[in-house]
Amino acid sequence: MQLGMIGLGKMGANMAQRLLKGGHKVVGFDPSADARGGFESKGGATAGSLQALVEALPTPRVLWMMVPSGQITDDTVDALLPLLAKGDSVIDGGNSNYKDTLRRARTCAGKGLNYVDCGTSGGVWGLAEGYSMMIGGDETVVDTLTPIFQTLAPGKDKGWGRVGPVGAGHFTKMVHNGIEYGLMQAYAEGFSILQHKTEFSLDLHQIGEIWRYGSVVRSWLLELTTDALGKNPTMEGIAPYVVDSGEGRWTVDAAIELSVPAPVITLALMERFRSRDSDSFSDKLLASMRNEFGGHAIKKE
Fold first, then answer.
1. In Å, how far are 24, 95, 193 from 131, measured between CA atoms?
2. CB crowding 107-134: b at 16 or more within 10 Å, else e
3. Given a cut of 90, is residue 285 above it in pLDDT?
4. Is residue 231 annotated as a catalytic residue, yes or no?
5. E-assigned strands of the chain?
6. Predicted local distance difference test score (pLDDT) of residue 124
7. Cα–Cα dist 197/174, whole Å
8. pLDDT above 90 (res 10)
9. Distance CA 93, CA 180 (A)
């Protein structure tokens, strides 16, 4: 199968390379000449514009977008609309908000285009290990795209599947990332407790290695955590500042909309916000309150 890959950043380029190795023909496009050159150096073909990319593909065309969520995805879809023809398919493999996906799908349907959302997990390891893909879209359309998903997945019959109609893929990936927030926070807090028990001189990397085998808390995320502890046991040089890319917020929003209690995911998100407040007004106010009602000492800056 031949397809176009829009977005040749790290993940997009890796996915395109895996498709090439699987026997697919891939033409890539990225506004960055360096990104295009990097893909070409690995044997891939590129186009210098979206129009040139579309013209290079046989009909019905298949285009996979790996671009940041939000306005860039909207701009890319808007640019594609006048270039594509009825029956062409657009796959959004980024971390789009499922509500945006539903809106874009309606727009594409009005033009006779197929819109498929593919929540994609695997990160930098996906090239070698394969990608976990949660797919939303018309069943018949997804069936025609099966060879692509089978090539990108860890195996032809594992690690991927159509989870529902359009929007369902990104919704499922959103919750997946919300769960990830909670898991990461639990590991971080647990290892922090171990690290603070200085009288035992615990080797956190050793403990992580022990937990990796046979333990009920073993996971790929634990493997990565253990690897990080082996490289930098004290986290030296790393600022205590944790960003979020949006999916955790969207998961909490969905939980509120659906009246589903999700305290662990919500608190994990709040902890990320807290990590960015190096001059906490609320903590200063708490100290001041204690001084007001109990005369407790205030630590000066």
1. 16, 14, 33
2. ebeeeebbbbbbbbbbeeebbeebbbbb
3. yes
4. no
5. 2-6, 25-29, 45-46, 62-65, 89-92, 114-121, 132-136, 160-164
6. 84
7. 36
8. yes
9. 18
Helix (H) or strand (E) holding 257: helix 247-257
Query: How does DSSP classify residue 7?
Result: -
Residues whose CB falls within 8 Å of the CB of residue 295, separated by 6 or more in sequence, listed in order? none
> Whole-model pTM?
0.94
Respond yes or no: is residue 173 known to be catalytic. Answer: yes
Is the CB of residue 119 less than 8 Å from the CB of residue 94? no
Going by their DSSP bridges, the two strands 132-136 and 114-121 should be labelled as: antiparallel
- For position 186, what pLDDT does the model report? 98
pLDDT tens track for 103-152: 999 999 999 999 999 999 998 889 999 999 999 999 999 999 999 999 99
DSSP 8-class letter at 116: E
Contact present, 167 and 101 (Cβ < 8 Å): yes
Separation of alpha carbons 295 and 184, rounded Å: 38
Q: Which residue has the tokens 């085998």?
A: 213
Cα 288 to the chain's mean position, in Å?
41
**Is the pLDDT assigned to residue 301 strictly greater than 90?**
no
Rounded Cα gap, residues 45 and 94, in angstroms: 22
Q: Report d(CA 251, CA 205) in Å as an integer.
A: 32
Question: Pick the catalytic residue: 10, 111, 129, 180?
Answer: 180
Q: What is the DSSP letter of 4?
A: E
| Residue tagged 């657009």 (tokens) | 90
pLDDT of 52? 98
